[in-house]
Amino acid sequence: MSMKKLRWGILGSASIAKRAVIPGIQGSAINEVAAIASRDLQKSRETAKQFGIADAYGSYEELLADDSIDAVYIPLPNHLHMEWTLKAAEAGKHILCEKPLALTAEEAQQMADACQRAGVHLSEAFMYRWHPRYDEIASIIASGEIGEVRSITSSFTFNNAGDSGNVRYRKAWGGGSLYDVGCYPISAARLLLGQEPAAATAHAMFSPQHDDVDMMLSGLLEFEGGKSLIFDCGMWAAFRNPLEVLGTEGIIQVPNAYVTNSPGSANFFVHRGGEKREVQIADINAYTAQADAMHAAITGNVPLKFTPADSVNNMKVLEACLRSANERSRISI
């Protein structure tokens, strides 16, 4: 007996949608991309043709009015996340919204409350969390193999500074490296440590050439028991995305913590007692796994592992880091 497919609508033709999320959903046996909308009808038609999507709309409102659509994916610029999440919830659509969920924790809470009132699911599109290797990393930590965790270090940087018209470089739109990629190390540390940080200290390079957004940011998060996250993020630096968990007896090293787009790139290493072992992980599409988790929640009443409350807490940390960088001070969370 075949399972009913979840019918998705895409609000916008952003690069991340075309490069990763649409192919990820289409790679699922239980999800399908049924419609796409753009404020430019020609653009939505072109994207629909490119990916074999049945329906193309010239406005987001038209897609939300389509009763055949079960869920929507929102890859719009950060400052539009709340507006279109609220409208999608009102239309009765389940929502997968790009990270960061909002511009502030207050906005994220409004979105969570609206979705709860409407009886729809809301999930933040941190695709990396749905890759099974994070369950394996958590299992190794819990086993005690590396001893007691002392700290986590992580980075996520890339160089796109030459694209001056990019939405990432619009301060009022929620631009900057912290909101674009710094949110990943912060989310990962909270996930693996299983607790919320008490304080944040950050230093940033704000670029007048890019509307004064943070083009590079380095930070320290303080967790209970003396644990910490030391991280950096940037949009004007060479590409890298490692994560390291330091324990009293060993180390977990993840060379590609967030981007796994080549064979073997999901593998990671455990160091203990002078020995190093490679943990081999199946190559799966995290975007497909993300869509499948939404299907399970919507059609099978399986609770989502990551709730809107988690997104609100992540936004609190992002806000604290940005405030710290602006004020040159330690911020309690």
From TrEMBL:
The keyword Oxidoreductase applies. Coiled coil: none annotated. GO terms for molecular function: nucleotide binding; oxidoreductase activity. Keywords: Oxidoreductase. Residues 6-125 form the Gfo/Idh/MocA-like oxidoreductase N-terminal domain. It comes from the Bacteria. Residues 136-252 form the GFO/IDH/MocA-like oxidoreductase domain. The keyword Cell cycle does not apply. It holds the Pfam family GFO_IDH_MocA. Belongs to the Gfo/Idh/MocA family. This is Oxidoreductase.
